[in-house]
Specification:
Length: 383
């Protein structure tokens, strides 16, 4: 099937480019109902043409092996466009080393890619190459996340964001990670990104931090999605965390500069609900609010767990003979799935493992180390 798609795309790329539905970017049509945008021309002649799919475009995409079902699910309006640049995009990517199957996959998952002009693609590629080692590396990123390259066609804004983020002290490797993880950061306006950085610097100052700029950079590196969140969400989460856990300024500052940076991603409502579920569960089993605080400070990611997931894991551990205080002291055991926890407890009970005497560190071991430990326990149960 992949070979067939590759053959169709090769045939398409070498076929005469004379379809009436295409806009030749070096020679745009004389009459247009709306202006060209970044070298792309869109014509709207009547309501019927807007609503119906472009048959020539469908034929071309089919020849390229593009999954039209995915296109209709993700960006159906693309199929109604009169002028697109699918051949130019395919030839450009092919020239950079992308296989026909990768090209078809990119367009299937991010159809808006075919609206980009050849000139725009070249300009953006040159900017990416300034902090990527090779064309092959960029192709791998596009194959994983087409949106990271094709979402924005504003190359000036992209360049401005790169300059701004570099001014914060981010190096090319860190920009690379940010670009591949949260590409929308680079299509934000620079002012929007500045607002978040200014908020983080202000939070640091209010909490008594000595280096607001370093604090903001640390948060960005620990939470690559922070710049695509709203300042209102982030500020509300910070306030709620401090109030709910009764944290001092220094405790909150340390939490945010550590693993706590990631929980700022949660919606305000989700963070609130997850905290309340955790607190209710801990208190129900005889714990106190101070135990909740200890657990969250030691393992902030617990606040990502929904009430059902958390309840299931805690019940599994408690029923297996592990105490609540052991969980509070070693909360990373909650990282594992309920199935994994249950399986390990059953294996350990089979060899008479005493959690009260030996603790629960064994439950946090990697699979390889756990199996090795089980072999030793089986051979010498008293170990």
């Amino acid at each position: 099937m992949k070979m067939a798609a590759s053959l169709r795309l090769r045939t398409f790329l070498h076929a005469p480019w004379a379809l009436a539905s295409k806009c030749i970017f070096d020679h745009p049509p004389v009459q247009l109902a709306s202006p060209c945008l970044h070298g792309l021309c869109t014509v709207t002649s009547n309501k019927k043409s807007v609503k119906s799919e472009n048959k020539s475009l469908l034929e071309n995409l089919n020849l390229m092996g593009v999954d039209l079902k995915k296109v209709r699910q993700r960006q159906p309006a693309i199929l109604r466009r009169i002028f697109t640049n699918e051949k130019g995009v395919a030839q450009f990517l092919q020239g950079k080393g992308a296989s026909n199957n990768v090209i078809a996959s990119i367009i299937s998952r991010y159809p808006r890619s075919i609206t980009r002009s050849d000139r725009n693609l070249e300009q953006q590629w040159d900017m990416w190459r300034s902090f990527f080692d090779s064309d092959e590396e960029i192709i791998r990123v596009l194959d994983r996340s087409p949106e990271s390259f094709f979402r924005s066609s504003d190359n000036e804004n992209l360049e401005s964001n790169i300059r701004f983020l570099t001014s914060l002290g981010l190096n090319s490797k860190e920009l690379h990670r940010l670009l591949t993880t949260a590409p929308r950061t680079f299509s934000n306006t620079v002012n929007l990104n500045k607002q978040m950085v200014e908020l983080l610097e202000c939070v640091c100052s209010e909490l008594g931090g000595e280096d607001p700029a370093h604090f903001a950079k640390t948060i960005i590196l620990r939470n690559e999605y922070i710049l695509i969140r709203s300042t209102k969400r982030v500020k509300t989460n910070i306030d709620n965390i401090q109030t709910s856990l009764e944290l001092s300024d220094s405790e909150l500052l340390a939490l945010l500069q550590g693993a706590g940076a990631e929980i700022l991603d949660l919606s305000n409502e989700c963070l609130k609900n997850n905290f309340e579920s955790l607190q209710q569960k801990i208190i129900m089993h005889g714990g106190r609010k101070t135990d909740v605080k200890k657990l969250v400070l030691a393992y902030p990611m617990v606040l990502f767990m929904g009430s059902n997931t958390l309840s299931s894991k805690l019940d599994c551990l408690l029923e297996g003979g592990i105490t609540l205080m052991q969980i509070v002291k070693k909360p990373r055991v909650l990282e594992f799935s309920t199935k994994n926890i249950t399986g390990r407890i059953v294996e350990l009970q089979r060899v008479g493992y005493d959690f009260e005497r030996n603790g629960i560190n064994i439950l946090e071991l990697s699979r390889k180390r756990f199996d090795a430990k089980m072999e030793r326990l089986t051979a010498s149960p008293d170990e």
